[in-house]
Amino acid sequence: MSVTVIGIGADGWDGLPTASRREIESCEVLMGSSRQLDLVPGEFERVPWPSPLVPALPGLLARYEGRRVGVLASGDPMFHGIGTTLVRLLGEVRVLPHPSSVSLACARLGWALDDVDVVSLVGKPAALVVPHLHPGRRVLVLGGDPREVAALAPDARLTVLEQLGGPRERVHHSLDDADPLHVLAIECGADGESLTPGRPDEVFEHDGQLTKREVRAVTVALLAPRPGELLWDVGAGAGSIAVEWCRTHPSCRAIAVEKHPERAARIKRNATRLGVPGIEVVVGSSPEVLDLAAPDAVFIGGGLTAAGVVERCWDALRPGGRLVANAVTLESEAVLTRWRGRLGGDLSRIEVSRAGAVGGFTAWRPQMPVTTWVVTKENA
Ligand SMILES: C[S@@+](CC[C@H](N)C(=O)[O-])C[C@H]1O[C@@H](n2cnc3c(N)ncnc32)[C@H](O)[C@@H]1O
User: Fold this and answer.
1) Percent of the chain having pLDDT more than 70?
2) Which of 39, 86, 100, 250 could share a disulfide with 12, CB 3.0–4.6 Å?
3) Does 146 sit in the ligand 1 pocket, CB within 6 Å?
């Protein structure tokens, strides 16, 4: 099916280049939001988007098979827009882009588009902005409530840019009653945690069941996250491994598996506060609950001695994936030794001592040694 997606701005028909107007005029069917359809003149059949849109799209497109179909999209259709969804569905789509909201925002602010982070909060939690807040950085936020973002970035300077490119364009600093069509510009203050794994233990809410800072840094390094990859954090405790994995890149995903409901609730809170609210938390015992999407990496921090856990994790792991397991007890260490005999990989022992007060002096306080096994599933 041949579909053309035409980007349109808040200035409607007047702001469209000739090529986009011609394309619209040649359509038999034009789809888009009611607001966008009202912006263009013409005799074609107008099909306003149903709600929810994405599940209805395949049926809608099938109904107009064989007709000349145009789709209106706001700004650049390939930037957080319907264009990408249509390419996924149809394989190929002709796209006539318009300047995106972030191009217009950078033009108004005098910001370099190549030096800003962009976060979409359209239909998503405001917490996603947290990993983008770093001293002196500039961030543009699509959608969301500016007041919720302000609460997460108290020392930032915020600018609301409404209806960019349209007759009702407004740029101001008042956070109340922002027009739904707005971009929020953030100039970060001095706050912002580093995204490098191994953040201080106090950053996480925990009940002691936490992979401590030094071991956590090594563990995430061995898990070797790449953009877009999925981690299983099995026996997740406070969820710190899943959280630090996800913070390495906005496209990294994690499923945290934890049998204690109160710890599972704590994982959710840590994930939200540290800006990775998308972590899926599965409450239940492994291996029974491990019927999940195939992971690119697995961390086993708890449940090693339960029958079938390592088998299930290893079987589920994608080719090229990494499995890392940490053991503190002799029993779980024996499990790792056995598995290393079967699958190979590297065993190492991490012994950390932290300096602490002893009376008026300072001494080393050893922590329990941790045995770490890392193995890669070779590409078949
Ligand atoms: C799903 S995104 C679509 C982005 C669009 N494809 C683009 O290129 O700008 C929708 C969000 O973009 C922002 N947006 C789109 N057009 C805008 C405009 N003219 N003025 C301000 N914000 C706009 C708003 O934050 C809106 O909630």
Assistant:
1) 99
2) 39
3) no
